[in-house]
Write a structure and sequence with these properties.
By secondary structure, the chain is mainly α. The protein contains 9 helices and 2 strands. The longest helix has 29 residues. The two termini are 26 Å apart.
Length: 209
Amino acid sequence: MSTLTLGPSRPVLADRIVSRSLTTDVALVLGGAALTAGLAQVTVPMWPVPITGQTLAVLLVGSALGAVRGASSLALYLVLGLVGLPVYAPQSDGGHLTGFAAAASPSFGYIVGFVVAAGVVGWLSERSWERRFPRALAAFAGGSLVVFAIGLPWLAVSLHALGYPSDLESTLVGGFYPFLLGGAVKAIIAAILLPVAWHGADALAERRR
């Protein structure tokens, strides 16, 4: 009889480090949500806008846990914010949007995009895209674009509802162009970290033999 798990049929980084079980999978999903919540609070001054660790966490969690566990982890993160926990990235005044205020905000589409992006990156990682820098960078760049693909239409609809310009150029100026540099930096960081983590996990596995 096979053991019930949420893990992928093809092993990802988490499976190289810990044994598969439903208990382990639940712990990994919880840990991924906690990591995302923690990195979301990290803000680095950068031109043209400060960047947070939120998207970096999405890429790391998706690639390390695989499609199902990664998407589940980010779905949990989304729900935690909706029920009132201050887990999303802070606003410019240092406060946090939660609950209905968060769901009604123009930027909430990006958080929805995190769930899909984690699944996409996890799917690619199940096919070993994250083990070498060039393909890892392509996977993480693709994951970042998924976030924009969902977040930008949401932003446009929100801007229109609020009476602001919502044409394509206005939407890109408000929700895409300012974040390109930061997104590229985070994709590069993730593409460096994952192959290094795999090297360390392989070395640890060899020592255990």
